[in-house]
Specification:
mainly alpha, elongated, single chain
């Protein structure tokens, strides 16, 4: 199947992130004790599922893939920021780390959203 290199690269990156999330899910589920930890686990599950949905949508050129990208972008900070905040003690570097992660996820989501919109419009 001839796909552009960009589809392969984005798919590999998203699959790697989603498989890592799937791999760490049992540890997250085993350590649930509080309501905030349960909310982070739910965000983590949504993040993993929507990552696979984005990859599937990119490969099949589904026009509604942008919805999965938005869900991925919204649940991403919940999983990436919420995990360290509720599962580990707060350190002096935590606020800076939270800001960097939030900005990174926002920029990645915006770039992925623009890319998905461009390739689905070009193919359908």
């Amino acid at each position: 199947m001839k796909k552009p290199v960009s589809v392969w690269l984005i798919s590999l990156a998203l699959c790697a992130v989603s498989f890592e999330g799937l791999w760490s899910l049992p540890n997250v589920l085993l350590s649930l004790q509080t309501t905030s930890q349960i909310l982070v686990a739910i965000s983590h599950i949504i993040y993993v599922i929507s990552g696979f949905a984005v990859v599937t949508g990119i490969w099949r050129s589904v026009r509604s893939t942008w919805i999965a990208v938005i869900i991925w972008g919204v649940s991403g900070p919940g999983a990436a920021i919420g995990g360290p905040l509720v599962f580990s003690p707060i350190t002096a570097a935590t606020p800076r780390t939270v800001i960097v992660i939030a900005i990174s996820v926002l920029l990645i989501t915006m770039g992925l959203l623009l890319y998905v919109r461009r390739i689905t419009r070009a193919r359908i």
